[in-house]
Design a protein that fits this description.
Rossmann fold; eight-stranded mixed β-sheet; 39% helix; elongated
């Protein structure tokens, strides 16, 4: 399937707008926001036009609007109250995701209330996006604050073109699975057409997580992930800088007065525990210990821009840095030389450019960083006698900036030695390393990053190759081994495509053939578990080798098992007649009621989509008032007797009755279903079998894996039919039998 893509406007969504609004003397004043995201995206927005959605930095009054003269694009503020900022921004985004994604899980601060607020704010951003979204627009959502937003947009606009870019690292599987809400975040990201990361390593981590935690099918060679009936592409797009701007600023920067022999070591960071500032201070201290000749010859200028000052952890970090700077200066300082100049504020652009240009060494040693643009800014600014870049291996930039001296920021001795080497490096080596870095960063600049990402995000959509028997060999081969198989299958949407009316559903010839092949094996038992009535589903499948569970398992019959009917069926059959009459009073053309004895289904697939939720709520209300349990299904609401029996109970009943209490030792179970009612079986079989959710990925699932459609189920059954022979079943003998 190929779909052409046209170019509409660009809708950018990020936690913050590119301007920060403050209230002064009752009036709004907007100043440019800082940060790499603003620097990266403003050129694209000015070139292509569109709208930027984000928090403006303060809470606007109902009668206030935001308009920034000369911006070149529109801005849509998303309001956040102080409590919401506390829970969404400080609580979950920066109290959970930030430390976890930077491989510091011990700093996570889990609170269910913060997660609920995070969900709500992501929905609010999605609503703002949808309000402005038109056909052919590209929605570009940014960073960890809005990881759920793509899914919420996708629910409202299934055909929207959505891209997401993560500006921080993506952690490996062993760390990411610590997050209690990991399934929701992965589903959110996979609702995008394109998910971008800085580095191939982060792409690999993401692919590992979706494969192992969601059971998604991953094509690593092509960077594609099958998510239900959709495909998300993933790729690395290393962020560059506006190289010419930094180079020009360095050439024009002021020439400060400084002793001719003095060498400057420069650190430029936001004050954050991920930046490794205390560790690098200790490394500098160690170098002064080991190389006393450097005392008085070098000075360390550390710029730490204030960040999240109201957060206790950041306050503690500032105290630690203040104490380290005081101790080192007190230990080594002289009347004519201060070892460390610590600047706890932002530095104006021209002065920063001059510092970049004149530094002998840039000490860029984060404990973990998505990319780190300081390293690139330093390289672009080296227009005079070249300095040396000392770069943490834990920064994304280290994957391409190979000519830097790459260090482990946790290894104080190693950083100390590398720092001394950088200060003593001869000119020819410094030139060779710096010129190579400059060639690469000039070529792969910000403009290239924007062009590549937008071009990839607007490529025609296509499907992954169809799932093949080889995939099921990988997923099921070791699991099944030589064991007997018990295969449980839903009917509508699993064995046969959904139709506008249940009477129109039909099993295709290929599916009927492969079901027969499976049924002929003496090591494989099939059971059909359906919401249809027992007689109806038996008639539709028409194979007397199978066990059938109708009415969500309230009725069970088939070979090798004693027929079962739940004792409360008769009571609820009488009450269901009255409920049918009540539901038929709901006036909506295209809605109808399917009576199934003790249960029933209210269908509204043929009704206009905008009326679905209202109809569903009316049906739920009527069902509950009648004393039945209301369960949502695909464009329908199920009414089931509230008797604590569902597909999960039915499956376990069949397994226990057919194979004995110790069935899990001799039988391997596979279950496939496409409906919310199948989630009961997925839950019951968790850890006991291999489960597959069929169809779209619009809802969470407890299933181990997802399959795109009925055709994928047919391929699975063909693998089962053709697999190597397993064990025939022998009924266990009770110890009391002769």
């Amino acid at each position: 399937m190929v779909e052409s893509a046209k170019r509409g406007k660009l809708i950018v969504a990020s936690n913050r707008l590119p301007v920060t609004v403050k209230r002064s003397q009752g009036r709004l004043q907007a100043g440019r926001s800082s940060g790499g995201l603003v620097a990266a995206m403003e050129p694209a927005m000015q070139r292509q036009g569109g709208i930027w959605i984000g928090w403006p930095g303060t809470q606007l009054k109902p009668d206030e609007s935001l308009h920034v003269e000369g911006a070149g694009f529109d801005m849509e503020p998303v309001g956040l109250s102080p409590t919401e900022m506390k829970r969404f921004y400080h609580g979950f985004s920066n109290g959970v995701l930030w430390p976890l994604f930077h491989s510091l899980p011990e700093r996570m601060q889990l609170d269910p209330k913060n997660w609920k607020t995070y969900e709500a704010i992501n929905q609010r951003f999605a609503d703002a996006i949808v309000e402005h979204l038109e056909d052919d627009d590209l929605v570009w959502i940014h960073d960890y604050h809005l990881a759920l937003c793509p899914e919420f947009v996708r629910r409202a606009r299934p055909d929207a073109r959505i891209a997401f870019f993560l500006h921080i690292p993506f952690p490996p599987f062993d760390l990411f699975r610590i997050l209690p809400n990991h399934h929701a975040l992965l589903r959110g990201l996979l609702s995008s057409d394109l998910v971008g990361f800085h580095c191939p390593g982060y792409v690999s981590n993401f692919e590992d997580c979706v494969e192992r935690l969601l059971g998604a099918r991953v094509d690593r060679g092509n960077g594609e992930i099958e998510h239900g009936d959709r495909v998300a592409r993933v790729a690395a797009f290393p962020l560059g800088i506006d190289y010419e701007r930094y180079e020009s600023a360095a050439r024009e920067g002021p020439r400060p007065k400084r002793a001719p022999h003095e060498k400057i070591i420069l650190g430029v960071d936001r004050l954050d525990y991920t930046k490794g500032i205390p560790e690098r201070l200790r490394a500098y201290e160690r170098m002064l210990e080991l190389h006393p000749e450097m005392r008085g010859e070098v000075s360390f200028v550390q710029i730490a821009v204030p960040s999240r000052e109201q957060v206790s952890e950041y306050q503690a970090l500032k105290r630690e840095i203040d104490e380290l700077v005081g101790r080192i200066n007190g230990r080594f300082g002289r009347s004519d030389w201060t070892p460390i100049r610590y600047i706890h504020r932002s530095i104006p652009g021209p002065k920063l450019s001059a510092l970049y240009r004149d530094a002998a060494v840039a000490l860029v040693t984060p404990l973990r960083d998505g990319m780190n643009l300081v390293a690139k800014e330093f390289v672009a600014s080296q227009t005079d006698d070249p300095g040396v870049l000392l770069l943490s291996r834990m920064a994304g930039a280290a994957e391409t900036m190979r000519e830097a001296l790459r260090v482990n920021p946790y290894n104080v001795e190693g950083v100390s030695e590398a720092l001394h080497r950088a200060l003593e490096m001869p000119l020819d080596e410094r030139e060779a390393r710096m010129r190579a870095l400059q060639r690469r960063e000039r070529r792969h600049d910000l403009g290239e990053w924007l062009d590549l990402f937008i071009a990839r995000a607007t490529e025609p959509r296509h499907s992954m190759r169809p799932v093949a028997k080889e995939d099921f060999e990988s997923w099921l081969g070791a699991f099944t081994g030589k064991h007997r198989l018990a295969v449980f299958l839903d009917f509508d949407g699993t064995l046969a495509p959904i139709a506008s009316h249940p009477s129109l559903v039909k099993i295709q010839d290929g599916m009927r053939e492969v079901l027969a092949l499976c049924g002929r094996r003496d090591d494989t038992d099939l059971a059909i578990v359906s919401g249809r009535g027992l007689a109806d589903v038996r008639r539709m499948v028409d194979n007397d080798r199978f066990v059938y569970a109708g009415n969500h398992g309230l009725e069970i019959a088939g070979p090798g098992i004693e027929s079962y009917q739940h004792p409360d069926i008769a009571h609820y059959e009488r009450r269901a007649v009255e409920l049918v009459a009540e539901l038929e009073r709901i006036d909506a053309e295209g809605a109808w009621v399917e009576a199934k004895g003790a249960s029933l289904t209210f269908h509204f697939r043929e009704v206009e989509a905008e009326e679905h939720e209202a109809l569903a709520e009316m049906a739920r209300s009527a069902i509950r008032e009648a004393g039945f349990q209301a369960r949502d299904a695909l464009c329908a609401v199920e009414a089931r007797p509230p008797i604590g029996w569902d597909k999960g109970h039915a499956v376990l009943h069949v397994l226990r009755t057919r194979y004995g209490p110790g069935w899990s030792e001799s039988v391997r179970v596979i279950y496939a279903g496409d409906d919310e009612t199948d989630e009961d079986a997925f839950r019951s079989l968790h850890g006991l079998g291999m489960t597959f959710r069929v169809g779209a990925a619009t809802q969470p699932t407890r299933a181990r894996r997802r399959l795109s459609d009925v055709n994928a189920v047919e391929t699975m059954l063909r693998w089962i039919a053709e697999r190597a022979p397993g064990r025939a079943f022998e009924r266990p003998v009770s110890p009391t039998e002769p």
